[in-house]
Amino acid sequence: MSKDRFQGCLVGAVVGDCLGRPFEMLRPTDERLSEYFFSFQEPNLRLPYKPYTDDTAMTRCVAQSLIDKKGFNARDMAVKFVKEYYTNSKRGYGSYIPIVFFKLKETHFTDLYGPAKRLVDGKGSYGNGGAMRIAPVALFCRDMDKEEMLRIAKEETLLTHSNRRGYNGAILQCLAVHIALHTLEGTLERRKFLDQLIMEMESVETCGKEELDDDEDELEYVKRLRKVDELLDRGTAVRVLEVEDILGTAMVAHLSVPTAIYAFLRVLESTEGQEGNKFQETIKYAISLGGDTDTIASMAGSIAGAYYGLEMIPLHLQEQCEGINHAITQATKLHKMCEGQNKMMQKGKGI
Ligand code: R7I
Ligand code: MG
Ligand code: MG
């Protein structure tokens, strides 16, 4: 059963990325989106295959490195990112990140964290690239101490995003996937989910205050999670433009990770279209917000997939997307590794 949720998480991320990509920086109307999703059900219609973008390309590197090295290895991770980028640089990467890859390559990976640190006049990037690729860390660390998971999430993100908003966004996304994965299906409650995230982020954001940007709130993510809660109180009366205005839909971490969490929770709580598939509705709603649609749909998709499982992800959506089988294979390996670690721990305790 839990394997289904590991697979759901990585497949969910790919589906969000592939289906969200055509709408990047656009805001499709409800009619257009309904047509788009309806077209996938038409067996005789030949649709263009939906390629994945940098979100999936980098998520695959994170998963593969954790699998190959049986843990976090900064050098291997960095090598994989760079190799992937130079194999196919046309996956829609952000504007800063190629500079990091170039420097890492040029310096033969001797200074793993330096290139990211020197970006943006030494402030580092706060793009959402750390958050968009973090899901495999939450899976790999399923049974580890939360502190260890957060340490890995931060160190992995720092390879490219050294700005506090960038790595804390990745930490928040990692926690959201982690909690979704650990919550029994049918029992996830918005308040509990958000309370847990707020509690964790309060302790995360109290550290590293010396790295605050001038316009950054000390408890940036905690405040944004409270706004998510307030918006959810208003149910489906909240309009797309308000979400964009209050939470954001940009390709920076603080204006997209809380938005993805909102999309997941809004659909979870919604009683509209009860007969609909909650996973599909999550992706559809995330795309309807416009802006950074591939990434917001991918992050919402990985949380939703970790909660609902692969079985809930319609096949006709999976069939549209590049890289589904690869995601299933990686998720299966990560799951096997977790089960193995678990058995060893139990043996050690004499259980
Ligand atoms: O974060 P990153 O990997 O980009 C991910 C996004 C996702 O939406 C992908 O789907 C892809 O489209 O890009 O790459 P970065 O280059 O580090 O950051 C992405 C963008 O965030 C940059 O191009 C900037 O527009 C913006 N950004 C910043 N803007 C102002 N000040 C990142 N950091 C800053 C900043 O410090
Ligand atoms: Mg992308
Ligand atoms: Mg994007």
Reconstruct the topology from this structure:
Layout: H1 2-20, H2 30-39, H3 54-69, H4 74-87, H5 97-106, H6 114-122, H7 129-132, H8 135-140, H9 146-158, H10 164-182, H11 190-206, H12 220-233, H13 240-246, H14 257-269, H15 278-288, H16 293-308, H17 315-318, H18 324-348
Bound molecules: inosine diphosphate ribose and magnesium ion (2 copies).
What does this entry look like structurally?
The protein is an all-alpha fold and 351 residues long. It has a single domain (3-209, 219-340), classed as ADP-ribosylation/Crystallin J1 (ADP-ribosylglycohydrolase fold), CATH 1.10.4080. The protein has helices at residues 2-20, 30-39, 54-69, 74-87, 97-106, 114-122, 129-132, 135-140, 146-158, 164-182, 190-206, 220-233, 240-246, 257-269, 278-288, 293-308, 315-318, 324-348. The two termini are 22 Å apart. The model has no long low-confidence stretch (mean pLDDT 94). Helix 1 runs antiparallel to helix 18 (324-348), helix 10 (164-182) packs antiparallel against helix 11 and helix 14 crosses helix 16 (293-308). It is built from 18 helices and no strands. Bound molecules: inosine diphosphate ribose and magnesium ion (2 copies). One magnesium ion binds next to helix 3 and helix 16.
Give the total of domains. Answer: 1
Strand content: under 5%
Q: Which small molecules are bound?
A: inosine diphosphate ribose, magnesium ion
State mean pLDDT (0 to 100 scale). 94
Q: What is the CATH homologous superfamily assignment?
A: ADP-ribosylation/Crystallin J1
What's the CATH architecture name?
A: Orthogonal Bundle
Span from first to last CA? 22 Å
How would a textbook summarize the main sheet?
Answer: none
Structural class: mainly alpha
Contiguous low-pLDDT stretches (5 residues minimum) are none
Shape: globular
Rg over CA atoms: 19 Å
Give the strand tally. 0
Helix content: 55-70%
Q: What name does the CATH topology carry?
A: ADP-ribosylglycohydrolase fold
Which CATH C-level class is it? Mainly Alpha
Count of runs of 4 or more consecutive helical residues: 18
> Can you write the helix and strand succession as a string?
HHHHHHHHHHHHHHHHHH
